[in-house]
Q: What sequence folds into this?
């Protein structure tokens, strides 16, 4: 993987102690709490977890897409040094699409069905780069070519229902990267696609992002995706980060039992025939509250008494592999490390 | 024609499986949601009051219907207003207003229910036949429905009533005819949708006879939307009964109290005694409102795709 | 697209055919002697004989139907029993009045209805929404003739803000070219005539347009609510677009589709409502003339007017169906 990474560059995005509370008719729900991570320019970071882990909500908070009246966001989100949570709606709108962009999970429903795709790409350019309609059309045609849609100029007039799922996702990628944002957040971009297309789209993403030096936050539940793409991984469970580590460390020596479980449940080519898969017992619904216990405890094979009465704190540690890499763990009884650090 | 937004995009009118995924019976879930909705309760309350008043009219009304014994008290300039023995005053013919309103409710209920039942039976039969047999039958039925729908429903009812003559029966038939297309389309759609559904295919594969499939599976699942539509149709019917009377097509017998006719009579007296029009008009509106509220709440309650 | 249009037009033919058959049968289903019924009270033996010859009641049924079809094609519906005037002539004479009324009614409904529905959808669950829901429910169930009577009572009789009846103050000597009174005044530069006609239109238009208004509010509210939750609106927000752009291009353009569908139905409501509203306000249009025809069983007028109305209604619905393709590209590829 060749791409420029600032060795000691200032972080582009710094999330610190982020908390998101949803106010519903049945009370408040804290979907995300104590989440911290950072992304350097050009870096590829992964947020991993099952549904309900809070990874998407975190992304939406960074982008400023959470409904203001029913959510409260606490903590700090700094982009390029500026505190996003202090900005007004208009300023955040100025950043969206131009500096930071996001692509979502389901390409079938993420495009406006009654507007031609050329307009849907062009409008971002008109909004942030001030291009006129004809200029925007030119650039849009080129963008389609860059995401692998041939005959881009002609296809600008087409409507989303005339395109396949994979093509629609390419259009959405084109839209996201149109104004050359420095940060791209991809929320499960391939989950809704056919398996064969998944690989294509991921490869496209990697190419584009590396070529332009765009920082990437990849949100996924699929560790396979992470392995091929990301440098730094943050594993989330029930709204909190439970382990952060560079890719190699995470895959080589997972420390949190949940991470270990995730890795262990992946079917492997080199496993013996007839060997049963090892899923993590229970489901995300069997979580305890974080307030006085470890949420993962009910499903944890490494559980000790402390886990059900005290909240494990997130502890950082410097792994000597590369200065500046984050490593953190939230666990009272982590997995044994097989290598001495 | 249902005046209550039949084409709302909530997907209403789609047949729903009897048991939903979470395991709670659809009916029980619907009942629970109904109980919680204030609008449903309000609607149900109005409907209940209406039905009780209509059925118990002889017991509730203070006087005999259409007895004009106080006609002498009515002058060209004024009609006596509320008084101790006439709670709502008299009407322009000298009858007790309250009595007339109560018996008017009875009339509206009878005509409304009969015409809706008529429309439902004929419409449902046609619809089921069209959806079930398909092909030529379907085409013929649908053309007929289209013809009926090409005239706005009130005018359709008017044409029928004008031809048959002036009687209660003619009004019932007229409004019933106007209701046929809606039910026909509903049941046809339901039938066609369910013919393709997995459980019908499964039943078919098991060798269960067509007729049994229809009676035992399709009909029960179409119940929900049909009842909803019937409730809303009843609201429309009540208004159309009044409209037909207003147009002079209703039951000609002056002894029968009817809200629409009371409005006609009230028109001339309007300047001096507006309440003669207001009372029956408000009755029509509130009754129709009750059925509409209830029908809409029912529709939402039966919809398994609740976001709550 | 053209093929789609032609196909839909072709579907209209059997419907109109069926309708003509129905109306043919209709008049002959009258209890008693059709000729006598047609003449009503003025039936004299000579008159009955005349009508019989005119309508051909004594000829074989098929011949009658053929003659009838011929009449239909020539738009000849005979003459009114009451005033003897040709039905077709009176219809087209009164047509502009009703169209003018209907136009203003639908304008009232759309101009008020869509913003209200949108506002309610955006502030779902809040006080505004509650008011809008309640109001629109009431608007749907109020019988149009009752509303007309009420409006007349309050605003025309008691408050004297508006005239109680007719299309124009008889004291104003206006020249009529098109018979669309408001337009005529503008064309002939008699602006006071235009204004007067407009003032006379207010109450009837409001009465007639209230039910369509309520329906439009409800559909808009439901539709906008649904669209606001769609993923593509989230995409639009993620692009950082200005709110007016999101609203116009992404929310409304999708949310208005169901509203469009019902416009055809609204026309039906307007036509039938006009019969009642015009009568209350003594507004000289198709509606009030038809009302009198109904009360007095003027069958030639009834038959002709209802057929014309059915034709207009069908054409409008056809236009809406075809126009829908303009707005929703998914429908175009058939």
A:
């Amino acid at each position: 993987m060749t791409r420029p990474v600032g060795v000691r560059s200032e972080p582009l995005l710094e999330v610190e102690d982020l908390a998101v509370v949803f106010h519903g008719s049945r009370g408040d729900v804290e979907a995300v709490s104590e989440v911290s991570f950072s992304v350097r320019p050009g870096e590829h970071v992964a947020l991993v977890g099952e549904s309900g882990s809070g990874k998407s909500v975190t992304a939406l908070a960074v982008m400023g897409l959470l409904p203001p009246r029913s959510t409260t966001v606490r903590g700090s989100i700094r982009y390029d040094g500026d505190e996003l949570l202090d900005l007004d709606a208009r300023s955040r709108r100025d950043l969206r699409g131009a500096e930071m962009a996001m692509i979502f999970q389901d390409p079938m429903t993420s495009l406006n069905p009654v507007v031609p795709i050329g307009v849907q790409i062009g409008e971002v350019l008109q909004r942030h780069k001030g291009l006129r309609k004809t200029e925007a059309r030119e650039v849009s045609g080129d963008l389609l070519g860059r995401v692998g849609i041939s005959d881009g100029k002609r296809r600008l007039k087409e409507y989303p229902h005339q395109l396949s799922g994979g093509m629609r996702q390419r259009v959405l990628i084109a839209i996201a990267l149109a104004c050359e944002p420095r940060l791209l957040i991809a929320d499960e971009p391939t989950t809704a696609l056919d398996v064969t297309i998944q690989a294509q789209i991921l490869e496209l993403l990697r190419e584009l992002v590396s070529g332009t030096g765009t920082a990437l936050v990849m949100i996924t539940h699929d560790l396979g995706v992470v392995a091929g793409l990301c440098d730094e991984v943050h594993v989330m469970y029930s709204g909190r980060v439970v382990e952060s580590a560079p890719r190699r460390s995470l895959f080589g020596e997972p420390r949190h039992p949940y991470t270990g479980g995730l890795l262990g449940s992946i079917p492997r080519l080199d496993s013996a025939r007839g060997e049963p898969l090892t899923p993590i017992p229970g489901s995300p619904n069997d979580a305890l509250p974080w307030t006085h216990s470890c949420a993962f405890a009910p499903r944890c094979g490494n559980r000790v008494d402390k886990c059900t009465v005290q909240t494990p704190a997130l502890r950082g540690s410097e792994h000597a592999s590369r200065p500046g890499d984050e490593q953190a763990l939230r666990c009272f009884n982590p997995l044994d490390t097989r290598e001495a650090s | 024609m249902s005046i209550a937004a039949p084409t709302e995009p909530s997907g209403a009118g789609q047949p729903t499986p009897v048991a939903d995924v979470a395991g709670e019976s659809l009916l029980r879930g619907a009942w629970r949601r109904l109980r919680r909705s204030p609008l449903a309760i309000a609607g149900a309350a109005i409907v209940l009051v209406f039905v009780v008043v209509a059925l118990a009219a002889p017991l509730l009304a203070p006087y005999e219907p259409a007895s004009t014994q106080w006609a002498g008290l009515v002058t060209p300039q004024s009609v006596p207003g509320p008084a101790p023995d006439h709670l709502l005053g008299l009407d322009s013919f000298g009858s007790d207003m309250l009595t007339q309103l109560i018996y008017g409710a009875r009339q509206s209920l009878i005509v409304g229910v009969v015409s809706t039942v008529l429309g439902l039976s004929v419409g449902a039969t046609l619809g089921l036949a069209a959806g079930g047999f398909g092909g030529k039958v379907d085409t013929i039925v649908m053309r007929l429905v289209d013809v009926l729908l090409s005239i706005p429903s009130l005018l359709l009812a008017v044409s029928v009533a004008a031809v048959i003559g002036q009687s209660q029966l003619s009004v019932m038939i007229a409004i019933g005819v106007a209701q046929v297309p809606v039910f026909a389309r509903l049941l046809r759609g339901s039938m066609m949708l369910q013919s393709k559904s997995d459980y019908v295919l499964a039943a078919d594969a098991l060798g269960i006879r067509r007729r049994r499939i229809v009676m035992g599976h399709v009909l029960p699942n179409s119940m929900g939307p049909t009842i909803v539509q019937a409730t809303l149709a009843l609201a429309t019917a009540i208004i159309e009964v009044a409209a037909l009377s207003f147009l002079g097509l209703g039951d000609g017998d002056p002894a029968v109290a009817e809200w629409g006719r009371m409005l006609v009579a009230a028109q001339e007296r309007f300047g001096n005694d507006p309440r003669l029009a207001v009372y029956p008009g408000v009755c029509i509106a509130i009754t129709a409102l009750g059925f509409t509220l209830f029908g809409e709440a029912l529709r939402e309650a039966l919809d398994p795709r609740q976001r709550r | 697209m053209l093929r789609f249009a032609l196909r839909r037009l072709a579907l209209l033919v059997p419907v109109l055919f069926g309708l003509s058959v129905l109306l043919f049968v209709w008049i002959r289903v009258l209890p008693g002697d059709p000729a006598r019924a047609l003449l009503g009270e003025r039936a004299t033996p000579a008159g009955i004989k005349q009508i019989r010859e005119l309508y051909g009641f004594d000829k074989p049924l098929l011949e009658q139907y053929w003659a009838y079809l011929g009449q239909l094609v020539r738009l000849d519906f005979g003459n009114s029993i009451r005033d003897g005037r040709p039905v077709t002539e009176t219809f087209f004479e009164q047509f502009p009045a009703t169209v003018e009324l209907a136009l203003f009614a639908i304008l009232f409904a759309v101009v008020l209805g869509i913003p209200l529905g949108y506002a309610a959808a955006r502030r779902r669950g809040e006080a505004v929404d509650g008011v809008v829901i309640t109001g629109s429910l009431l608007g749907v169930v109020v019988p149009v003739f009752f509303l007309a009577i009420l409006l007349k009572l309050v605003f025309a009789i008691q408050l004297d803000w508006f005239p109680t009846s007719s299309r124009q103050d008889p004291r104003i000597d206006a020249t009529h070219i098109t018979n669309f009174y408001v337009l005529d005044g503008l064309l002939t530069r008699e602006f006071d005539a235009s204004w007067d006609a407009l003032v006379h239109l207010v109450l009837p238009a409001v009465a007639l347009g209230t039910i369509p208004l309520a329906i439009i509010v409800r559909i808009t509210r439901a539709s906008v609510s649904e669209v606001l939750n769609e993923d593509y609106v989230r995409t639009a927000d993620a692009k950082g677009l200005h709110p007016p752009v999101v609203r116009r291009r992404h929310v409304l353009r999708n949310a208005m589709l169901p509203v469009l569908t019902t416009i055809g139905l609204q026309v039906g409501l307007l036509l039938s409502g006009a019969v009642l509203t015009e009568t209350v306000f003594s507004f000289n249009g198709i509606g009030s003339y038809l009302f009198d025809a109904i009360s007095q069983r003027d069958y030639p007028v009834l038959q002709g007017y209802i057929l014309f109305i059915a034709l207009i209604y069908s054409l409008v619905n056809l236009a809406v169906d075809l126009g829908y393709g303009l707005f929703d590209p998914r429908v175009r590829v058939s």
